[in-house]
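User: I've been trying to design a sequence by hand for this structure and keep getting stuck. Would you show me what you'd pick, starting by listing the structure so we're on the same page?

Assistant: Good idea, let's start from the same input. This is the structure you sent:
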């Protein structure tokens, strides 16, 4: 069992489902202090993390069936933009937990094999993020079965807020903020 699954089983974690975004507050210690998502196969995770709270958004993989059909690509672009903006709206509603001047407030983007399943997604995410002044880093995760880390590595994104400072994990590897 991976660290995220253990935290969920113990009631310590909020699980974010595909196409959902959630926030947890580390200040109110009586709530869940961990948040994450799993089953990352071609998906993108956008997380905003500070010492006070964490937002995780799980954006499901490209909904267009035919990557060459312009109408499907435009529809997919609108869906992705809406999903990214939902994460940013949650951030704006809870901005008090994410001080701009606090260098510990970061946006982390976990991306399927270092690239999105749709070619326009990187530019669209960058355009949406221009509304914030937060620094962000790209973190790649590996497609299951790719052989990079073996088939036993769970494809999870996990923020553990149970300690003094939150720790972010991608594929059970700690990400330095």
């Amino acid at each position: 069992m991976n660290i995220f699954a253990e935290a969920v089983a113990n009631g310590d974690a909020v699980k974010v489902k595909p196409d959902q975004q959630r926030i947890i507050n580390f200040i109110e210690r009586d709530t869940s202090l961990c948040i994450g998502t799993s089953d990352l196969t071609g998906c993108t995770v956008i997380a905003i993390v500070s010492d006070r709270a964490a937002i995780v958004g799980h954006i499901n993989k490209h909904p267009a069936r035919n990557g060459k059909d312009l109408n499907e690509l435009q529809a997919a672009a609108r869906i992705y933009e809406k999903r990214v903006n939902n994460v940013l709206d949650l951030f704006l509603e809870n901005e008090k937990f994410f001080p701009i001047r606090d260098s510990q407030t970061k946006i982390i983007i976990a991306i399927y094999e270092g690239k999105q399943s749709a070619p326009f997604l990187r530019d669209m995410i960058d355009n949406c993020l221009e509304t914030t002044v937060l620094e962000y880093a790209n973190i790649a995760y590996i497609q299951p079965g790719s052989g990079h880390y073996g088939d036993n590595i769970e494809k999870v994104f996990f923020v553990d807020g149970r300690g003094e400072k939150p720790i972010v994990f991608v594929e059970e590897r700690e990400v330095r903020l």
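That's my pick for every position. To get oriented when you compare it with your attempt: Helices lie at 3-9, 70-93, 121-129. Residues 3-175 form a domain with the 60s Ribosomal Protein L30; Chain: A; fold (CATH 3.30.1330.200).
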